[in-house]
Amino acid sequence: MGWLLVLFDLPTDTKTERREAARFRKGLLDLGYLMLQYSVYARCAVSAEGKKAHLIRLKHIAPTTGNVKCFFITDTQWSKAVTICHHYPQTQRQLDTDTKIGEQLQFW
Hints:
Blueprint lengths: L1 E8 L5 H16 L3 E4 L2 E6 L2 H14 L5 E8 H5 L12 H16 L1
Antiparallel strand pairs: 1-3, 1-4, 2-3
């Protein structure tokens, strides 16, 4: 088991590019990805076959411009991540994401 990380840098200079970037972010959420940061998303991948299926779905929703990088890390690597955070007021979007991560981890 592991995690599929999706990191992206998409152009947002024109209205069309902004719309494409927003469509991609919404597509990631619709596919069950969790937003870790504005352009960093993660999803559990239980098997190698599952990882391949997720990558195929990503290719279907990826914009034609910009860069999208995908990394697979094991659950052990994920658990060794160090989080450094400073206290600041969380937005509703961040609170919703934190709840989803907790629910997803309870599944495992």
